[in-house]
Each structure stands twice: as structure tokens, then as C-alpha cells.
Design brief:
Strand 1 (111-115) and strand 2 (118-121) form a beta hairpin. Strands 1-2 form a two-stranded antiparallel ribbon. Helix 1 (20-41) packs antiparallel against helix 3 (58-78), helix 1 (20-41) packs across helix 5 (127-142) and helix 4 (82-101) packs antiparallel against helix 5. The chain starts with 19 loop residues before the first helix and ends with a helix. It has one domain (20-112, 121-167). The chain has helices at residues 20-41, 43-52, 58-78, 82-101, 127-142, 149-167; strands at 111-115, 118-121. With 168 residues, it is mostly helical.
């Protein structure tokens, strides 16, 4: 059987429309967990980290980052306002990559040793930040996929416009 060729995005297999779901689930959940951990440990502890990094207004930025991660993560998970929410989420990732992870190189996993206590790892590089950024870009360019608030809203808006045109 010859390989199928697709000349436009509209001709791709229907299964590819579902590719956004695992991206939304892992990226959304990841941001929620990161924000929740900062909140659970105390925003003042995260503010102290930001102050050590010379981030201006560390207390405000601590709360802002936590809010962006939790609210943005929930939005990505639901496929809601993905394009809009990707902007502050990407900003958090870029700032983290440049201020925290860049000095430690690319790799997020640096096995230093294995002892009786288990594996010992070094400080993480910016790899994970880039993976999250790539996933956000894929969601922005490829859409939220099925079972997403954005898809529901888009379909609803399209139906309303069609109804308005039909009644005109």
C-alpha cells in the first residue's frame, strides 16, 4: 500500500487532532505543581530566592509567578485561552532559564554519583524550560485540540456567525 501524502493541514489524519491533549495535560499539570509547591513552601521563601537573584519587587513577583503558574496551568490543562496564557507562562520559563538554569548548562539530569542512599544529581540546566516552551509553541501553532474550552468556544462562535449570516 503506497504511503499517503498530505498537502495541507486539513488533509491530515483525524488522529493527529488529538496530539494536543497529552501536551496540555503534562504542561498544564507541570505548571500547576510548580506553582503549588511554591505556594505550599511559602511565597516568602520563593520571594527570598527572587531577592537573591536580584529580581525587582521580589514579594510581588513571587505572588505573580505563583498565580501565573497555577492559573496558567489550569487554563492550559483545560485548553482555555491557550494563546493568551502562553505569553506569561513563556515569560516565566525564559526568566527561569536565564536567571537560574543557564549557568548549569543544557541537561536537566546530571547524575553525579550513586550511593547507598540512592542517586545523587547535580543542579538542573535549562533543558526542561526549553521543552515546556516547545510544548507551548506547539499548542499555540497547532491549537488546543478536541475536548478543549478553546475548541468549544471557537465552534460556538462559528455557529453564531453562521446563524447571523443566514438571518441577514
Amino acid at each position: 500500500m503506497p504511503a499517503q501524502r498530505y498537502t495541507s493541514m486539513h488533509q491530515r489524519p483525524a488522529a493527529s487532532n488529538w496530539a494536543a491533549i497529552p501536551l496540555r495535560l503534562i504542561v498544564g499539570y507541570g505548571f500547576i505543581v510548580h506553582g503549588y509547591l511554591k505556594l505550599a513552601r511559602g511565597p516568602e521563601r520563593f520571594a527570598a530566592v527572587l531577592a537573591a537573584l536580584r529580581v525587582p519587587a521580589p514579594a510581588l513577583m513571587s505572588w505573580l509567578t505563583i498565580g501565573i503558574e497555577i492559573v496558567g496551568g489550569l487554563a492550559i490543562l483545560a485548553g482555555a485561552f491557550v494563546i493568551l496564557m502562553s505569553i506569561p507562562l513563556a515569560t516565566v520559563l525564559v526568566v527561569a532559564a536565564v536567571t537560574v538554569h543557564l549557568p548549569f548548562g543544557f541537561s536537566s539530569i546530571k547524575l553525579l554519583a550513586v550511593s547507598a542512599d540512592g542517586a545523587q544529581f547535580g543542579k538542573p540546566g535549562y533543558e526542561l524550560d526549553l521543552l515546556y516552551l516547545a510544548c507551548l509553541v506547539a499548542l499555540v501553532l497547532g491549537g488546543s485540540g478536541p475536548l478543549a474550552v478553546d475548541t468549544y468556544l471557537s465552534n460556538r462562535t462559528g455557529k453564531l456567525r453562521a446563524a447571523q449570516r443566514a438571518s441577514s
